[in-house]
Amino acid sequence: MSSNNLDTLYRQVIMDHYKNPRNRGEFEGESLTINMNNPTCGDRIQLQMKVEEDRVVDAKFVGEGCSISLSSASMMTQAIKGLSTKQALDMSQIFSDMMLGKDYDDSSFDLGDIEALQGVTKFPARIKCATLAWKAMEKGLNEDKSK
After folding, report:
1. Cystine design at 44: which of 26, 37, 54, 145 (Cβ 3.0–4.6 Å)?
2. In terms of C-beta density within 10 A (0-12 exposed, 13-18 middle, 19 or more buried), how is residue 120 classed?
3. Largest alpha-carbon pair distance within the chain?
4. What CATH number does the domain containing 73 carry?
5. Within the chain, how many helices (H) and strands (E) appear?
6. Mind listing the GO molecular function terms for this protein (predicted)?
7. What is the pLDDT of residues 76-89, one digit of tens each?
8. How many domains are there within the chain?
9. Cα dist. 7→22, 51, 83, 91, 122 in Å?
10. CA angle 82, 64, 135 (to 5 degrees)
């Protein structure tokens, strides 16, 4: 597939998650809740996770922001459901490496739609948009672990 066709496909995947977000909403009752924002551009997200026995059993988000920020949150919430907290944090490190243009080993995960965000690396100002939900997840799981 040519680079141009791949870019088009990736843009379509990102826009699909933006227009049809997965896991958008809030939990009723108790959940691990993290609020984060990107003061540079105004993106904000509230991530909620249900964590039981060191496993992310469910995740939802609400927020406002650009297509990159919200589609990344949609993709991330899909990807971490069912993972152990360690696996979710490991996946977040892989995503961070991908966003920074570093070599990464994704052999232990099927990144699926998340790979569509690779093109963000061409726009350094947008990397914070793509990583906002992931940083919220890391913060929440690390704080939950320390309790």
Report:
1. 37
2. buried
3. 49
4. 3.90.1010.10
5. 4, 3
6. iron ion binding; iron-sulfur cluster binding
7. 999 999 999 999 99
8. 1
9. 22, 35, 29, 23, 12
10. 45
pLDDT in tens, 69-118: 999 999 999 999 999 999 999 999 999 999 999 998 888 888 999 999 99
- Residue 4 in tokens: 């141009």
Residues written for the chain: 147
- What is the C-alpha separation between 41 and 49, in angstroms, rounded? 25
120 backbone dihedrals φ, ψ, rounded to 5°? -60, -25
Q: What is the pTM of this model?
A: 0.93
For residue 131, which amino acid is it? T
